[in-house]
Amino acid sequence: DSFCFIEWPDKVLNLLPKERINLKIINEKGKRVIKIIS
């Protein structure tokens, strides 16, 4: 499993293939971070 922590705007999040990527939105130091498990 690979983990990637990235800060993305909503426009980019809406383009992600959520059915193929396990996404988890977390808060890290006050920033919204996307955890991708592929």
TrEMBL record:
It comes from marine metagenome. This is Uncharacterized protein.
